[in-house]
Amino acid sequence: MDGVPGGGSAGTLHLVGTPIGNLEDITERARRVLTSVDLIAAEDTRRTGRLLQSLGISGRLLSFFEGNERRRVPELLAALRAGKDVAVVSDAGMPGVSDPGYRLVAACVEAGIEVDVAPGPSAVMAALVISGLPTDRFAFDGFLPRSGRARAERLRSIAHDPRTTVLFESPRRVAGTLTDLLPLGERRVALVRELTKLHQEVIRGPVGDVLAKIQDRELKGEVVLVIEGAPEDDGPDVGEVVQVARELVAQGLGKREAARRARAITGAAVPLREIYERLMVTGP
Q1: Checking CA distances to 5, which of 59, 83, 219, 242 falls within 20 to 30 Å?
Q2: Domain ranges, ordered by start, for the chain
Q3: Is residue 233 scored above 70 in pLDDT?
Q4: Per the CATH hierarchy, to which homologous superfamily does domain 13-121 belong?
Q5: Whole-prediction pTM value?
């Protein structure tokens, strides 16, 4: 642990999980840590302030969100080096998962400052286990890119991934995402909304069925999508890979680069030479 002026020791960074809806989910350890630290770095100080007030906890709050994370890291490191204990909390759930925290943890590890965690509620894990879909292997993909090639590539990757996939989504965009997932056919999904809150809802079924159930509704609250993985033998054949390569060529890529990228996008175990030769035969 780093030394500090005066011969003392550095403080500890605590990552603290907070309720994702139901306040009864706060842990005794989280209460203790939030009560004892010198500083609480919060994604939304107003929201965290209300949480602390409801728990009867008073503490010094500092804003720590995506827009100021890079600037705040040196400030928080200085506080830790000065012997202060710091807690990081997000709006809900575990900090550092699609929320600020990773950069500060990495900086503390690099500086030799102790990092601890008070585990708590997680929307990812809660949605996964309530979905009814396989939990032995899963991938968390955060928020999908909103549009363009990056979104298309991510959707292709999900389509061919044998693991269950967990996504975060806005209630305003979830119907569009389900529409983009329609090519998955009978693959099952679970749309999990308002986890642990009064109006918690889980809609399960094939992609098209779930889309039909929500299409005429105005959804509210946080949404997590859980998507069934591809059958283990459902890898793309060479024709599918070549089609992806042809689309990339149409976008301006050379054939060799399109073949290489198409294989990476689809995850197919197809020789590059075979993809390239088929491109040469079929043309652009």
Answers
A1: 59
A2: 13-121, 124-227, 238-282
A3: no
A4: Tetrapyrrole methylase, N-terminal domain (3.40.1010.10)
A5: 0.76
